[in-house]
Amino acid sequence: MKRVILVHRWDGSPDADWYPWLKEELEEQGVGVVIPEMPDPERPEITSWVSFLQKQKFKIDKDTYFIGHSVGCQTILRYLAALPAAHIGGCLFVGGWFTLNLETNEEREIAGPWMTTPLDFDKVKKMGPIVALFSDDDPFVPLENKKTFEQKLGARTIVEHQQGHFNDSTAPAVLRELQKLLKGKR
User: Looking at domain 3-182, which of 3.40.1180.10, 2.60.40.10, 3.40.50.1820, 3.60.15.10 is its CATH number?
Assistant: First the structure.
């Protein structure tokens, strides 16, 4: 059975945004979905978020797919980089970033380590196909991140129009791209 592990955004929860809607859509199609409630979502930290995923003891194989939203993308990348070599079904990153538009010192303090701590891109990109969704009006994620996902991770990237930071209660583009991954289409 195919399984999806969805890691929510900064200041999010399993019940936020489009996550419950997507979970219901996928479960109706026979896909298992897990949305862990990440620790201290108001102040996400690399060590606590990655170790939290590691403690979940997920089965990682070709039937495992990851969806990350915002800092959830960073979390998945770092989680996968810490695993022994593995082959997964793929990753779908939504509003992912390596640079951000930040407004406050607190935001810079929280996001800083995520943007500056090295990451083994080569290891992660060998694990399975990567697709990254961006919006042309995301207030937090500059579109320059698209190029980084393409160059460092070999990701197929898609730019949606007027989706902001993908915080709506539904996300048809996410479902569409995930269904392609689940069918083995990159």
Answer: 3.40.50.1820
Q: Tokens 């190029």, residue?
A: 147
User: For the segment 138-185, what is each residue's pLDDT rounded down to a tens digit?
Assistant: 999 999 999 999 999 999 999 999 999 999 999 999 999 999 999 986
Closest-CA residue to 125 (of 87, 73, 160): 87
Tell me the C-alpha distance between 42 and 55, whole Å.
21
Q: Tokens 């070599």 label which residue?
A: 85
Q: Which of 20, 82, 78 is nearest to 49 (CA)?
A: 78
pTM above 0.70, yes or no: yes
Place of tokens 């694990």: 127
80 burial level (CB within 10 Å; 0-12, 13-18, 19+):
buried
